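Researcher: Let's do a round of design. I'm pasting the structure tokens now; please hold your answer until I've finished.
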């Protein structure tokens, strides 16, 4: 047996023996009878240690397995799950309100005669407001606590939904969207922090990742609601936008009865309340060690960093928090730069390119896209405590980059065999349209004012013309052969808006599906999860406010520039660009992201003590095969070669 392995077994046995001794002492002290099975397991473990079979790897492994089984019986109290799910409703609302607007706009633009500027305003005002309120949320969180911020966010969601459902004009709609955006920003930075602070270390990653599961769940639910209400031409949008009031009200009333984060309370000196809540969260198990460690940590931090000056300045001048901030903001930036929201937003176009002609079908297939994003986030929830944050993020981003290359290649191949425009019918209104200047479908497709009207001979495009699109419906041309839907379909004519019919479209579809499969379990949730754990308590709200702000700012930047990027670089150029960003992100994450799995929040700061680009190397799990397992209010080291056992 190698020296490392034997050290490992020795360490394991020592830890187990300490653990069991500690546990027995507690049971005796509490006068608890303890289950017969537990006692038997413990006796056999201690006996095994006294037999001193330290050199035997086999008995070490058996011992370890027995101990693991024992630990698994120490269940996490259900209250932590209840609290996490109620908080994650904030994630659901974030996903719902950002996702629902595309479907609502289809109906709104007809009913309220919205031009392109107003449509863009209604979408980006929410994201812009979210960026601002995420930043402001940092101050609020520090001053008032997590609970009031979650209550504020659910209040804003409810008020916004009410205003939107009752709106009579576009100005009121804009007001409602801003209010909802303010709610999204506060929720997006507070909920992960709150969950991370109440969760036991061995479940923290999983519980915070559930918040992102709720985000993608909200996006999926929104796309289904969009699909259903798209059949209700009059006032359908009121239901789409107003429905979010239901989870918002549930969250508001739920949180009236749920507690403040014990860590925040300790920081504010409300120690009695903090103790009571911590003990409630741990199912009345002994909490002394956890409580002391939080308290000592706060005191040490105050000594080390001082308490004077704005938190952001203290964060920037203290190397470990400065490094953590760079890692947190970098992760959020690369999440958005790898193009998730353009892939989601343009999924209908990508699907249409693959031959889906019907608009309604495209809406439902876009719901399918959102569903894939949701289901694979669930895979992330399952993987996060098994693989750890670092491996999961690296694996996810590698797959995302490859998928982006496939997606871009699909567009590239399609552009290369782009059908020629063969007919140039004169414009009956004699207006000068740009559409006549294109001699290939590719140019025609990239111009938002034009579409291709064509026939199919077997599978090749014939008799094609590039014609202005109808201002009211992208499903038909403004004039000519393709201007009357029922007539042109009877005559075997086709209308392609925003896509070109080519035999390589399936490559883009394959890229899209692979993209979601790889992005959703890692790059989707990990930036939120990692940010909720890498800052010390004094810097946590500010750190999360900054990184969430970065997420929202890059969200706006990428979504707003996509069409222009596509116009200058074409679609394949845009997706190759995102693949390049994903490649840069990989280098950054490989060098800088340490593993935080299983560590107590108070231990994580030490991972950033070394120079920034060596943080990624301080992956204790890889080097020492050690995992931290929380049992009854304390953390114990356990040798780990089979992390999947530990749940
Ligand atoms: O983590 C989330 C999630 O992956 C969403 O699908 C995406 O729309 C958000 O921008 C992102 O922050």
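Researcher: That's everything. Go ahead.
Model: Designed sequence:
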């Amino acid at each position: 047996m190698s020296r490392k392995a034997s050290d490992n077994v020795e360490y394991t046995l020592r830890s187990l023996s300490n653990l069991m001794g500690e546990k027995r002492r507690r049971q005796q002290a509490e006068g608890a009878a303890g289950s017969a099975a537990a006692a038997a397991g413990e006796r056999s473990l201690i006996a095994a240690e006294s037999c001193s079979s330290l050199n035997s790897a086999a008995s070490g492994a058996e011992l370890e397995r027995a101990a693991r089984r024992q630990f698994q019986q120490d269940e996490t109290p259900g209250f932590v799950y209840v609290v996490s799910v109620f908080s994650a409703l904030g994630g659901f609302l974030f996903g719902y309100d950002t996702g629902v607007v595309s479907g609502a706009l289809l109906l709104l633009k007809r009913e309220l005669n919205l031009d392109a500027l107003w449509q863009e305003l209604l979408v980006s005002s929410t994201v812009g407001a979210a960026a601002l309120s995420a930043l402001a949320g940092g101050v609020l969180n520090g001053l008032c606590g997590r609970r009031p911020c979650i209550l504020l966010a659910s209040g804003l969601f409810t008020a916004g939904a009410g205003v939107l459902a009752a709106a009579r004009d576009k100005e009121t709609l804009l007001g409602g969207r801003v209010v909802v955006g303010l709610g999204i920003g506060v929720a997006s930075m507070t909920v992960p922090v709150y969950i991370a602070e109440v969760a036991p270390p061995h479940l923290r990653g999983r519980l915070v990742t559930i918040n992102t599961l709720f985000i993608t769940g909200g996006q999926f639910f929104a796309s289904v609601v969009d699909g259903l209400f798209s059949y209700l031409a009059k006032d359908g949008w009121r239901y789409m936008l107003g429905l979010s009031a239901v989870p918002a009200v549930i969250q508001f009333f739920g949180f009236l009865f749920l507690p403040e984060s014990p860590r925040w309370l300790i920081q504010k000196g409300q120690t009695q309340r903090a103790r009571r809540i911590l003990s409630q969260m741990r199912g009345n198990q002994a909490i002394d060690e956890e409580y002391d460690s939080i308290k000592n940590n706060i005191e040490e931090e105050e000594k080390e960093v001082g308490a004077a000056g704005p938190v952001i300045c203290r964060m920037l001048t203290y190397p470990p928090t400065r490094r953590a901030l760079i890692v947190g903001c970098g992760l959020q930036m690369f999440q958005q730069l790898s193009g998730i929201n353009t892939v989601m937003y343009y999924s209908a176009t990508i699907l249409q390119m693959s031959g889906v002609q019907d608009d309604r079908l495209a809406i439902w297939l876009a719901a399918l896209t959102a569903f894939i994003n949701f289901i694979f986030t669930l895979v992330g929830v399952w993987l996060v405590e098994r693989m750890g944050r670092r491996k999961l993020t690296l694996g996810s981003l590698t797959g995302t980059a490859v998928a982006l290359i496939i997606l871009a290649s699909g567009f590239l191949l399609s552009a290369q065999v782009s059908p020629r425009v063969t007919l140039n019918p004169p414009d009956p209104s004699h207006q000068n349209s740009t559409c006549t200047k294109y001699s290939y479908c590719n140019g025609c497709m990239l111009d938002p004012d034009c579409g291709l009207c064509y026939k199919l001979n077997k599978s090749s495009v014939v008799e094609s013309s590039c014609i202005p699109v109808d201002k009211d419906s992208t499903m038909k041309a403004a004039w000519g052969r393709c201007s009357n839907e029922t007539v042109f379909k009877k005559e075997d004519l086709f209308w392609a808006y925003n896509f070109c019919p080519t035999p390589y479209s399936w490559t883009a579809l394959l890229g899209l599906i692979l993209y979601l499969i790889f992005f959703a379990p890692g790059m989707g949730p990990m930036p939120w999860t990692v940010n909720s754990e890498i800052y010390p308590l004094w810097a946590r709200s500010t750190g999360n406010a900054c990184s969430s702000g970065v997420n929202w700012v890059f969200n706006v930047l990428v979504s707003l520039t996509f069409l222009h990027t596509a116009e200058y670089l074409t679609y394949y150029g845009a997706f190759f660009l995102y693949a390049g960003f994903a490649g840069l992100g990989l280098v950054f994450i490989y060098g800088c992201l340490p593993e935080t799995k299983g560590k107590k929040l108070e231990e994580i700061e030490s991972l950033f003590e070394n120079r920034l680009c060596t943080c990624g190397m301080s992956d204790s799990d890889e080097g020492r095969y050690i995992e931290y397992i929380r049992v009854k209010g304390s953390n114990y080291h356990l040798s780990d070669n089979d992390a999947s056992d530990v749940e």
